[in-house]
Amino acid sequence: METYKVIEIKESVFADNNREADRIRASLKREKTFLLNLMSSPGSGKTTTLLRTIEALKGELRMGVMEADIDSDVDAAAVANAGVRSIQLHTGGMCHLDAGMTEQGLKELGTADLDLVVLENVGNLVCPAEFDTGAVKNAMILSVPEGHDKPLKYPLIFTVCDVLLINKIDVLPYFDFDLEKVREYAHMRNPRLKIFPVSARTGEGVDAWTDWLKAQVRDWT
Amino acid sequence: METYKVIEIKESVFADNNREADRIRASLKREKTFLLNLMSSPGSGKTTTLLRTIEALKGELRMGVMEADIDSDVDAAAVANAGVRSIQLHTGGMCHLDAGMTEQGLKELGTADLDLVVLENVGNLVCPAEFDTGAVKNAMILSVPEGHDKPLKYPLIFTVCDVLLINKIDVLPYFDFDLEKVREYAHMRNPRLKIFPVSARTGEGVDAWTDWLKAQVRDWT
User: A126 to chain B: which residues are within 8 Å by CB?
Assistant: First the structure.
């Protein structure tokens, strides 16, 4: 009985959230700003990948970054050092961002003069996948040490993402990770998922990913 | 206004959950069964660590395992192969287990003839930390590839855990991971946290961990 009650509340939260996310996208379209929602487990390399992406694109696109974290400003400081406007969103224990929190962040950051805003979501494969943030595209990172079975265990996030970065391919020799299997499992969840193997540490494969992202931004703006 | 409403519901959920968790612990105490709640990010090596733990303890303790997963039976099958009674709990999208779900699992597994039950929680550093499952002790795994900054970013889970396993120490040479820093950060969150560096793959350090666990079970039963 209690469980049923919680589910009803959750459904109304989702409906409100989806409407708000659609409003955010419409407003971003008018402003010609592209919002990317970047999700992964803790420690998959979201911030390092973001720093590589900034390095590749900041000469061509006007970028901004929103760093969501439960606590700490480590990531926002790193991004600010890379010369990109950034803000830190503290979720205060919340396990994901919803559209309302994203909208507050966008207002705080100021997006009128930006082509591309990246939202680095809370490190979590479960809850962030359930909430549309208003992003134009959803990206996720799965790193080699996490294992190739993750699409079997965390199906929703692979379904809602447009693009998957397989990060830390520089350590492939030290792990039992099968790149072909992860492609197969991920495409079972989402046949249209774009997949880029990269190493944010060495830079390998990063060009293919940033070229794809640039094309998406051009299409939108 | 909406946010406030959600928080109130959450608080009442927590209060109910805590009462239920206390009831579970009292019942486990009467039955002389120890329940360990094992938490970590996706891909930190919960199942591999559990298999090593089973290997070390199954001659001395009567063990059972509850595998919580959003979807898939991969882990329960692996544990069953190791010769231990196990059940798979499908959370149907839920990001954590609460006391009610744990109680259902314990009933299904049957605990009267068991000394030690391990609950492998959903791979997530955020939500599982918020819900007391009724476990006697909480354990978490942080693996080397995830980085030593995790206690700064995911504070609650380090606070609620009794023991931290630093897993995958066999790949320390390939990552910028500082074992001293992680100890310092983790103890900032929780000065009483026991820390065991291990490699579930090679078996290194596993004895110290299983000795500690055995002593906890003896204290309780």
Answer: 70, 93, 95, 122-124, 127
pTM of the model: 0.89
- Position A8 pLDDT exceeds 80: no
Contact B117, A33 (CB under 8 A): no
Hey, is the C-beta of A8 within 8 angstroms of any chain B C-beta? no
- Residue bearing tokens 């699992």: B105
Write out pLDDT tens, residues A52-97.
999 999 999 999 999 998 877 778 888 888 999 999 988 877 888 9
Do B46 and B123 form a contact (C-beta atoms < 8 A)?
Answer: yes
ipTM field: 0.84
pLDDT digits (tens, 9 = 90+) for B18-52: 999 999 999 999 999 999 999 999 999 999 999 99
Torsion of CA B190, B195, B199, B205, to 10 degrees: -170
- Contact between chains at A153 and B71 (C-beta distance less than 8 A): yes
What would you report as the CA-atom Rg of chain A, rounded to the nearest whole angstrom?
A: 17
The answer for residues whose C-beta is within 8 angstroms of residue A93's C-beta and 6 or more apart is A70, B126, B130, B156
Cβ of A172 under 8 Å from any chain B Cβ?
A: no
